[in-house]
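Hi team,

Below is the intake form for NAD(P)H-binding protein from Streptomyces hesseae. Please confirm the fields before the structure is written into the shared record.

FORM ID: S-0412
PROTEIN: NAD(P)H-binding protein
ORGANISM: Streptomyces hesseae
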Amino acid sequence: MTTTGKDILVLGGTGKTGRRVVRRLRTAGERVRAASRSGEVRFDWSDPGTWEPAVAGAAAVYLMTPEDPGPVADFVGRAVAAGVGRFVALSGRGVEHVGPDFGQGMAAGERAVRGSGVEWTVIRPNNFHQNFDEDLWHRPLRSGRLALPTGGVPEPFVDAEDVAEVAAALLTRDGHHGRVYELSGPEALPWEAAVGTIARAAGRPIRFVELTPEEYAAELRAEGWPEESVAGLGAMFAAQRAGHMAALTDDVRRVIGREPRGLGVYAARVAPTGAWS
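The structure came back. Fields below:
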């Protein structure tokens, strides 16, 4: 399949990986539709009326699913009927082990593209480096304390830039149909070591505190997190503690021909922006 002369639809086109996929594809000269609720192409999972205009004339789709799995299969079916011939679905490491409280949208995306009857590839990345400066753990790091229930199990954090480069390659190159790529970084770091790397780059003390799952849930509730988020994050860390995300892989290199970037490279790049000051 070739995308020449046709558009590539990137769902979540203003999001963490989506906007990076858009940038890489456009730099390579591809015709791209960056779709989101507030993006240049309007797309809303809760409004099926936005789906068909978004996919009309698209050859490939970067599928970033909502948390609610309900609309995913319907959208994929409509996209195929509109002529989409390739999907690259963003999922997550260990999603098959997490259970009902986390990742059900991603799991639905995997099922939908596998049954679509067209070309598909699934990418399952580890936790992004950018979770430390764009959301999730940014505010705690700025406060000088990140407290999580990791059980001391290491995490091979991966750079969202590498994930986007892999996704862009899969959207535009042949030879990857029917494959699942587990995208890790080059090293598995205990979270305490990861926070230490960021603290050194930032030039200021930042503590990592190991919590029990119960302590973590209590802290999230005290900060005003909704119960569904408390359950989801708890399920994610339970899967991490079980080791389902800890193994290194060489799938980034297999797709783009180079090793992934390490956390130290990321921290050195981001620290001068003042993200953790």
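SUMMARY LINE: Residues 69 and 108 are 6 Å apart (CA to CA).

Thanks, M.
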